[in-house]
UniProtKB/TrEMBL annotation:
GO terms for biological process: box H/ACA sno(s)RNA 3'-end processing; mRNA pseudouridine synthesis; rRNA pseudouridine synthesis; snRNA pseudouridine synthesis. Residues 19-77 form the Dyskerin-like domain. Residues 268-342 form the PUA domain. NCBIfam families: CBF5, PRK04270.1, unchar_dom_2. The keyword Secreted does not apply. Keywords: Isomerase. It comes from the Eukaryota. GO terms for cellular component: box H/ACA snoRNP complex. The lineage of its organism: Eukaryota, Fungi, Fungi incertae sedis, Zoopagomycota, Kickxellomycotina. Belongs to the pseudouridine synthase TruB family. Residues 402-413 have a biased composition (Polar residues). GO terms for molecular function: pseudouridine synthase activity; RNA binding. It holds the Pfam family DKCLD. This is H/ACA ribonucleoprotein complex subunit CBF5.
């Protein structure tokens, strides 16, 4: 047996790596994220975006629609709402009736992403008609490249926006085709949201000295989606819904509608524990103990997406720590919430179960803290030193919004205090007057005040 082959399985230093490059949406390259901790308890709630039930899938869905010419963007979105039989639909970036191309339609919960997509960059392919022939093609090519950078624009006469001078940035532009005999040119533009291509064509004509106007326009990119990313027509949407209604085949509808996570693939990702998801849905900040994984290159005040371990988007947030601080710090605020996406109570409530929260509840019960959990005269000194209230102004990781919230809450409390003081004064007056019921005395005082006001008004009229 000395010459026999050795079939023993030898231990390896590390396990086989998982290829996550083909995982969908926010889970793509999941293994490349920095690991803060792997210690958490998975909760059997929620599901991966592609495995949601059809009703939930559509409620959290977006459509990359190829808008047809002639109907307005609002008409198209209203038709989709009627076809899919949903409560809400919205679109990111209005297209003029004659314009075709990418129109991102958000359904129900996905409408919370409309604002973020409206401000994203756009790309257009435009046909410009010049009013006279040019000497050569190079003149138009140079003029197109000249109109880049920050440009002054006034919206055209036919527009729903106030005609006010404003600055819009053209990131890149290039001439694709030119027919000097027909005076037609085709050029591609990458620009800031809110750029008027009609105005750009007029400026192009002025720059060439022959005049010009926009003949035709198509949007080829809106935010993260291009016309090559599962672009569907109105007929596709109608046929997919008809197929489901008549044959109960979901596959066509699932191809037309895509999960909202599709729009968020360009954001830096932060993975949170299942136990902290519902607190975030109720507006809580993400703290370091709720952090599982995070992406490289995150900077303070950068917009990030908070996601679950299943790949669901929880919220759009503003980072309060850089990647380096997240890796090293053991306490503090990681991110404050900008827009919650996930519906409340999708995951169970898990806050208020920790040792500090339990102690806080006990101290409120014993009267050592007020009913809001704030310090009072009975609060022990060791608690005052050790406990950090992240909602109090001046503590680490507190944003300006919390200070504003505190200011609003105190201003709301003042009139209530005044009302309470006036009520107490009325009660004391009632007690001093005799054995009369204080409530009845207060009612009498109000009636007397009203009668006095009426008498004053009548005197003024006389």
């Amino acid at each position: 047996m000395s010459g026999a082959t050795d079939f023993r399985i030898k231990p390896e230093a590390s396990g086989a790596s998982i290829d996550t490059s083909q995982w969908p949406y926010l889970l793509k390259n999941y293994d490349k994220l920095h690991v803060r901790t792997g210690h958490y308890t998975p909760i059997p709630m929620g599901s991966t975006p592609l495995k949601r039930s059809l009703s939930e899938y559509i409620r959290y869905g977006v459509i990359n629609l190829d808008k047809p010419a002639n109907p307005s963007s609002h008409e198209v979105v209203a038709w989709i709402r009627r076809i899919l039989r949903v409560d809400k639909t919205g679109h990111s970036g209005t297209l003029d009736p004659k314009v075709t191309g990418c129109l991102i339609v958000c359904v129900d919960r996905a409408t919370r992403l409309v604002k973020s997509q409206q401000s994203a960059g756009k790309e257009y392919v435009c046909v410009v008609r010049l009013h006279d022939a040019l000497e050569n093609e190079m003149g138009l090519a140079k003029a197109v490249e000249t109109l880049t950078g920050a440009l002054f624009q006034r919206p055209p006469l036919i527009s729903a926006v106030k005609r006010q001078l404003r600055v819009r940035t053209i990131y890149e532009s290039k001439l694709l085709e030119f027919d000097n005999e027909r005076h037609l040119g085709v050029f591609w533009v990458s620009c800031e949201a809110g750029t008027y291509m009609r105005t750009l064509c007029v400026h192009l004509g002025l720059l060439l000295g022959v005049g010009g106007h926009m003949q035709e326009l198509r949007r080829v990119r809106s935010g993260a989606l291009t016309e090559n990313d599962n672009l569907v027509t109105m007929h596709d949407v109608l046929d997919a819904q008809w197929t489901y209604d008549n044959t109960k085949d979901e596959s066509y509808l699932r191809r037309v509608v895509r999960p909202l996570e599709w729009l968020l693939t360009g954001y830096k990702r932060v993975v949170v524990k299942d136990s902290s998801i519902n607190a975030i849905c109720y507006g809580a900040k993400l703290m370091v103990p709720g952090l599982l994984r995070f992406e490289d290159g995150i900077e303070v005040d950068e917009e990030i997406v908070l996601m679950t371990t299943k790949g669901e988007a929880v919220a759009i947030a503003i980072a309060q720590m850089t990647t380096a601080i997240m890796a090293t710090c053991d306490h503090g605020v990681v991110a404050k919430i900008k827009r919650v996406i996930m519906e409340r109570d999708t995951y169970p409530r898990k806050w208020g179960l920790g040792p500090v929260a339990q102690m806080k509840k006990k101290m409120i019960k014993d009267g050592k803290l007020d009913k809001f959990g704030r310090k009072n005269e009975e609060t022990p000194k060791d608690w005052q030193k050790a406990y950090v209230d992240y909602f109090a102004p001046g503590d680490g990781g507190v944003s300006e919004t919390t200070q504003a919230f505190a200011a609003v809450s105190t201003s709301d409390a003042q009139p209530k205090r005044k009302a309470a003081e006036s009520d107490s004064e009325q009660e004391s007056d009632a007690e001093s007057s005799g054995d009369e019921d204080p409530k009845k005395a207060a009612k009498k005082a109000k009636k007397e005040a009203k009668e006095a006001k009426k008498a004053k008004k009548e005197k003024k009229r006389d």
